[in-house]
Structures are given as C-alpha cells and as structure tokens.
C-alpha cells in the first residue's frame, strides 16, 4: 500500500529533510496550500495551520520549530507566517462581540 501525500510529507519532516515549494506543490497540490509572504519579497507555500499543527505534533516539534527546520524559514518569516495563518484561519469568522450580542430571533412561520 502506498503512502498518502501527508504521510510522505510527515516522513520528510521526521527525517529532517528540507521541504521545498516544488515538492510541497507536487505532494499536496497548489489548491491545498496557502501562500505566505516572505521577508524581502516573494512567497512561500505552506500547508494550512491545522495540517502544520498535526505535522509538528507528530514530529514532536512546535510549529515554529517545524517551519525553521523543515521549511528553512527565518524567525521573522516564521512570525509573519504565524500571523498570516491566524488571519487566514479566522477569516470570515464572526468577531467575538457579534457572537455574544444576544440570543437569535426564532424563525417566524410563513403565512400561507
């Protein structure tokens, strides 16, 4: 039985291999990745925050350690990436004050 793309990525990370954009795109497809702006211009493709969290946990690393070791990102790039991932992850979510504004109005029956 062959390895799934995520299992292949996990093996690369556990082995301490550098994960380049081309390999990541080939494994997961560009549609499955987020493009994070890099210091000095350009962008780096990364899996979503949830996938990074799972990969880091399985390797016994923090997300910052994973990004540094396997994706060869600098501390500044990691900070920017984590901020960007949080923005993307919570995009479209209701702000906390909107979620706590009170009970919703019940649906009213339609007049026939």
Characterise the protein shown here.
- The longest helix has 15 residues, at 75-89.
- The chain is built from six helices and two strands.
- With 112 residues, the chain is mainly alpha-helical.
- A two-stranded antiparallel sheet has the order 1-2.
- The protein has helices spanning 5-14, 21-28, 49-59, 63-69, 75-89, 96-99; strands at residues 34-37, 43-46.
- A hairpin with a 5-residue loop joins strand 1 and strand 2.
- It is globular, with a radius of gyration of 19 Å.
- The mean pLDDT is 82.
What features would you highlight for this structure?
mainly alpha, 2 strands, two-stranded antiparallel ribbon, 6 helices, 7% strand, 112 residues
Structure in a nutshell:
It contains six helices and two strands; from the N terminus they run ααββαααα. It has 112 residues and is mainly α.
Counting DSSP H or I runs of 4 or more residues, the number of helices is 6
**What helical percentage do the residues reach?**
40-55%
> How many angstroms separate the termini?
59 Å
Radius of gyration, in Å, reads 19 Å
Major sheet attributes: 2 strands, antiparallel
Strand content: 5-15%
Global structural class: mainly alpha
- The number of E-state strands comes to 2
Strand line-up across the major sheet: 1-2
Topology of helices and strands:
Elements: H1 5-14, H2 21-28, E1 34-37, E2 43-46, H3 49-59, H4 63-69, H5 75-89, H6 96-99
Antiparallel strand pairs: 1-2
């Amino acid at each position: 039985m062959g390895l799934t793309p995520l299992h292949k990525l996990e093996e690369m990370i556990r082995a301490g291999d550098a994960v380049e954009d081309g390999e990541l795109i080939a494994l997961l497809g560009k549609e499955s990745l987020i493009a994070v702006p890099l210091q000095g211009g350009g962008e780096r493709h990364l899996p979503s925050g949830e996938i990074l969290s799972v990969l880091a946990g399985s390797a016994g690393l923090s997300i910052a350690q994973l990004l540094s070791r396997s994706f060869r990102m600098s501390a500044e790039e990691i900070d920017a990436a984590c901020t960007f991932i949080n923005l993307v992850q919570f995009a479209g979510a209701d702000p906390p004050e909107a979620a706590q504004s009170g009970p919703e109005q019940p649906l009213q029956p339609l007049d026939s």
